[in-house]
Amino acid sequence: EVYTLSGIAKLKGFIKNGFDSSTLINLIVVFDSEKNELSQRGFTFPPHTFFYHKVSRSEVIGVLINKHHFIPDEAYQSFNKLVSQLGLQIIERRDSDEIFERLVVEANNKVVQKLNNPRFKIGEKDIIILGGFIREKINFAHSDDEGFLKTCEELGINTVPTPTLHSQKEKDIK
Known about the structure:
Elements lengths: L1 E3 L2 E3 L5 E5 L1 H9 L5 H6 L7 E6 H13 L5 H15 L2 E3 L5 H19 L8 H12 L4 E4 L2 H10 L2 E4 L2 H10 L1
Helix pairs in contact: 1-3, 3-4, 5-6, 5-7
């Protein structure tokens, strides 16, 4: 939606991409937040728009500091650069998100039961992130977490797993 002096206009034809925390970390560590890296993979600006949930910020910065040995200022600057370079839009939690979060919990429970695999159980932050994705009508969720991706599929959200090559680069960097 675009807010103008004369009202609200819906943007048609835009593809909304939602990044989970692991994808944000991958973009910072592996790609150094370069916009052309995503463009080369078919994510042109527009019609693609990119979103992250506010709860991811602290997790991303914590992982950058504790697992990737960034100094705190470097972690904050790297996150802010990613947001700026990709024009990431923030999703903030609202009171009304409880309804969407309950849908996420139900979907995740179905995934765990259907696949008989407790590894697919997602955490509280993932529930909040996916609740926001549902509310914002995100078309594609990007993640390397299998439980997150399978829950997205159960909810009818298209998924884009982090390519194995990129995950390997991230492990090599670690």
